[in-house]
Fold RNI-like protein.
Amino acid sequence: MTATTKYSLEGKVLKLNSAADAAIVVEELNALDAESLEEIIFSGNTFGVEAAKAVADALKNKSSLKIANLGDIFTGRLKDEIPLALDAFVDALVDKRQLQVIDLCDNAFGPAGAAPIRRLFIENRSIRTLKLNNNGLGIEGGRLIATSLSDAAAANKNSDSAKTAVLPNMNTIIMGRNRLETVAAQHLSLLAFPVLPNLKELRMPQNGIRPEGIQVLLKALGQSCPLIEVLDLQDNTFTKPGSLALVAALPSWPNLTTLNIGDCLLGKAGSKAFLRAITPIAPKLESLIYTFNEMDLAGAQLIPGMLANKPQVHVLHLNGNMFDADNNVVDAIRAVLERNGHRNALDELGDMEEPDSDTEEEEEDEEGENGGQEHEKTEDDIDALANALGDGLKVTCVTGLKEKKI
């Protein structure tokens, strides 16, 4: 047998319908040393049910498997085929105690595909990295994943090796572009994140999560996941509630290196609150994506001060916000970045939004009439709501869950 650590079908664009179609793959897998194979890459090919069963059988004795890349392996398959084929692969992976990475990205299996994955989580709790990007999970699929992680943690507690209901090995979850929306985000927040104390990387961009979902999600992460290094919530909706939840959670993540909250509509007040909150903390920050968030000039003027004690920031994206790209503040931002050795860190500011002049005039008139009282009230609201978030956030009941505090 040939000793090798990786077997790849990447780029071969195979259409494997039957066991006969998969015969060459099975033959090649059988020729590999069962104790040496650590990684399989099947992405970019398409497996029918019988082909999946045949290949899965060839994997069952590969006890050293650590990485299973099963992304984009069901193109053109019928909705009824995919769960059966996926279940065959799960059969081959459930007993792989060295398995660390499972990649199922770009498989449109929807909620039906979440059911086979449930068994994998519960029976194999060695998994560290879960990649479920662009699977069409929807609210129900997100709920199933959340419940599965919670149940896996409970199973872990019942084993001889664990004292608490947690999944200590899992440190990375990628679940972008899944239409999870607010309800599934709440399920993940209430059921999954509390059992993931060692979570370091969470990517959930483009999921249609509304402010009330973001609020609960950030609260849960702040309380349960202190080791967060990478957080990507791009293209969900924060507004004021989400901004304040972020402000409250930030101090919980001293190891934060990457934060992507672009296209999240934090708004003017939310942007200022966020920048003030992150300025004295997050010393390890390296990348901040803050595009299209309606940040105005007053917010942008806080950025040079924020960067002053963050010498490792080498990626800063601010395009699409509401200040002039030719304003002196941009020069000030670039100057700080250059002093820190990252002169090319700032992105191109080619799509800046025009400030809402009507809103600005109204705000100026109100401040003039009230002697700045409205501005002070906004700042007081930010402080009060941030404090309230710190004391416990009451979460309204979502489908299948009782009302509870997190």
Remarks:
- The first strand starts at residue 6 and ends at 8.
- The chain is about 40% helix and 10% strand.
- Residues 358-379, 385-406 have pLDDT under 50 and may be disordered.
